[in-house]
Amino acid sequence: MAVFRGTGRMKNGWNALQQKIRNNRSLSLNLRIYSVPIAVTAIAFAAIGGVAALGHQYVQANSVDYYRVMLEGKPIGAISSKDKVEQLLSAKEAELRKADTPVLAALDEDQVSYEPERAYKIETDDEATLVRLEGMLKVHAVGVKIVVDGKDVGTVRDQKTADALLQRIKNKFAPQQTAKKSVPEVQSLSVKTTATAKAAATPQRTITSVKFVEDIDTKEVAIGGTPPSDPDKLFEKLLTGNPAPITYTVKEGDCVGCIAEKLGVSTDLIYEKNPWIKDDEIDVGDELDLTALTPLINVETVEQITQVEPIEATVEYQKSDDMRAGQTKVLRQGTDGQRQVTYRLVKQNGSTLEEEIVSQQVLKPAVSTIILKGTKVILGEGTGKFSWPVIGHRITSYQGTRWGRMHKGIDIIGKSSILAADNGVIEFAGYKSGGLGNAVIINHKNGYRTVYGHMKSVNVKKGQVVQKGDTIGIMGSTGHSTGTHLHFEIYLNGKLKNPTSYL
User: Fold this and answer.
1) Residue 22 lies in a domain
2) Which of 259-263, 290-294, 420-424 has maximum average pLDDT?
3) Is residue 241 part of a domain?
4) How far, in Å, are 97, 247, 492 from residue 159 at the CA level?
5) Domain for residue 348, yes or no?
6) Which residue numbers delimit the LysM domain (predicted)?
7) Which of 163, 223, 280, 424 is in Cβ range 3.0-4.6 Å of 442 for a Cys bridge?
8) Which residues, listed in sequence order, are joined to residue 362 by a DSSP beta bridge?
9) Pseudo-torsion of CA 433, 437, 443, 444, nearest 10°?
10) 338: CB partners within 8 A, 6+ apart
């Protein structure tokens, strides 16, 4: 319509110009011949140019920007704003993530693209385009892969399942607890008599650190037609490695230590897998489970255990010239004391790797028993006060229960020479069954006996008199031993004592 109105105005202007020329008779012939067409032409061009400019401005003012929506390179419709498509994609992704299905799905990446367009007075049907796009979007199955030290070990449904599975493994060895809150330990490390156990406060256990030994990573992946792993089965696989069962049938002449050495396994594994073994007694034909677990994930925990332990009363001997040799008299009956001890334990999958005392406080000092004895010298009689049997000693394992069995003494490392802890007479020297290997037992002729086990070699003989500090053997790893060390025990009148109360 704008074009037709412009043409009418141009015609009216032309007619008016002709009328003016006819009325102006004073103009010269040349002006009538040349000037009139030139003027008319200029006016015509000016009118047409003005109309075109006005039309272009009108079209530009009424043109609309929009986007052609492409799905995998093919157009499926027009949209007024890319934001509307992006909102649809986000909502669809969230819907897929919340779906209550065995397998989750996700939108294919980069399947939607846009081409900018501009047209005169175009009206896009956004709703129709979005409905068409939603019905044509492509999805794929996804899961979350668990990676241990760079190796894929399994895929689960989603990140929530993966996090729950890893936390479940941690909880198996370190149940969740409030920070700095102590919980009772099921079993104490140290041996207590029935009386002292009742008197002692409940041991307190605090977990200070829980971490995986391996580098654990999780990432979302496309899984195609492969279903995710069952979380319970994957839990067992991560903790055990799903090893093939290994059994061994006891033969004539076998012993626990012999089997461990022959097959290259630890005695701890034999005891752990075969708890029915009592006092190392096995019979020909017994079948032992020797399946060694090979966990894919290991949990390291650092714990502190604080408990009250007895300080056993020592015995002091005083000699008297007024008493015949061999006669004794109790001058003072001793009483046990108490101490509060805090241990730091480093465990892997619940098994103790390191154990050390970080602090201890005497709550009640022990009072020693004083016994008066005759002055007659008895060859090999001990003083009742013990020195360390190893120079540069360090305790690697304290007296207590291990794998449901009693660890009767303490394990010590240091310089290789093993020394007599007090004067005495060699009661036993040689290889001893029951796990001690090469061992020495010293009778101190005052009610005490000391036991030295796992020696590489023995330097004394039965009946030999030794003095405190004499070398009786060389440290080794014979018998039921997992490394070179000295196993040391103390007995008083046949009753097992805690060496840490006497050394």
Assistant:
1) yes
2) 420-424
3) no
4) 11, 39, 60
5) no
6) 246-290
7) 424
8) 339
9) -150
10) 196, 199, 200, 308, 309, 310, 311, 362, 363, 364
Distances from the Cα of 503 to the Cα of 386, 405, 408, angstroms: 6, 24, 16
- Tell me, yes or no, whether 476 lies in a domain: yes
Per residue in 78-130, pLDDT (tens digit) is 999 999 999 999 999 999 999 998 899 999 999 999 999 998 888 899 999 99
Angle separating helix axes 159-173 and 231-240, nearest 10 degrees: 40
Instruction: Name the amino acid, one letter, at 139.
Output: V
**Domain total in the chain:** 3
The range of the structural domain enclosing residue 8 comes to: 2-61
pLDDT at 187: 38
Instruction: Look at residues 36, 61, 86 and tell me which one is the last residue of a structural domain.
Output: 61
Pairing between strand 112-120 and 63-71?
antiparallel
391 close to 415: Cβ distance less than 8 angstroms:
yes
Neighbours of 244 (CB within 10 A): 5
Name the residue with higher pLDDT: 23 or 406: 406
Spatial separation of the C-alpha atoms in residues 487 and 483, rounded to whole Å: 11
3-state secondary structure at position 289: strand
The mean-pLDDT minimum among 126-135, 359-368, 431-440 falls in: 431-440
d(CA 503, CA 399): 14
The CA-based angle 444-482-259, given to 5 degrees, is: 100
| 11-25, 78-92, 376-390, 452-466: least confidently modelled range | 11-25
In angstroms, the CA 11 to CA 24 distance is 20
Do 381 and 492 fall within a single domain?
yes
What CATH number corresponds to the domain at position 423?
2.70.70.10
Examine the domain organization and report whether 385 and 496 are in the same domain.
yes
3-state secondary structure at position 447: coil
CB 156 within 8 A of CB 142: no
